[in-house]
Structure formats: C-alpha cells, structure tokens
Specification:
The protein is built from 1 helix and 4 strands; from the N terminus they run E-E-E-H-E. It has one helix at about 45-50, and strands spanning about 15-20, 25-30, 35-40, 75-85. The protein has a 4-stranded antiparallel beta sheet, covered by helices on one side. The longest helix is centred in the middle third of the chain and has 8 residues, at about 45-50. It starts with 13 loop residues before the first strand and ends in a 13-residue tail after the last strand.
Length: about 100
C-alpha cells in the first residue's frame, strides 16, 4: 500500500489477528473474509488491541526518515502488504485430460 492508495475493509469481515516478534521487529497479520493485511514495524500490539476493540480508524506506513518523531512505545508501521484471498469457487482448477 502507498500514500496514493487506500483500502477500506469492514470490521464485520475481520476474522483474526496474529502477532509475531523477532527481536524488536514485529509482524502483524490481520485476516478478513476477502483480504489479508500484513503489517511490519514496532509496538504493533496496540494496533492488534485496537482491531479487537473495533477502534482502528486508519493505518499508514511511516517513512524511515520520520521514525525519530514517534515516541518510544507508540506503534510504528514500516510496511503494509495486502493480499486478496481467492474465493473457493475462483481457485484455479487442474486441467482434466
């Protein structure tokens, strides 16, 4: 995702979140009925909690040169990746011979 692109996903399609930590770097996977959103950054548990409470209004990735402006302990998203989940009826089928 970029600053020039936005995507609105309804809370009622939110299925679950998975937070993984590797040292200070974290990865948060947000799974919806039609899309999977992966966030990379620091202090992402606060975003996970906001999703659980249905309080998250928006997300954007922070440019590397702006990191120093964010106080310690506040969430910092450095990357957002969105993947569309294919519907079961749209899965590629093996060719029949």
């Amino acid at each position: 995702m970029s600053a020039e692109q936005s995507l609105l996903l309804p809370f009622d399609q939110f299925a679950f979140a998975e937070l993984k930590s590797d040292g200070k770097a974290q990865s948060l996977r947000l799974v919806f009925a039609t899309h999977e959103v992966t966030l990379r950054g620091d202090s992402l548990r606060r975003i996970e909690t906001a999703m659980q409470r249905m309080e998250l209004a928006s997300l954007s990735a922070l440019a590397g040169n702006q990191r120093s402006l964010v106080p310690d302990g506040q969430p910092v998203v450095t990357e957002i990746a969105v993947t569309e989940i294919a519907a079961p009826d749209k899965q590629p089928q093996a060719d029949k011979e």
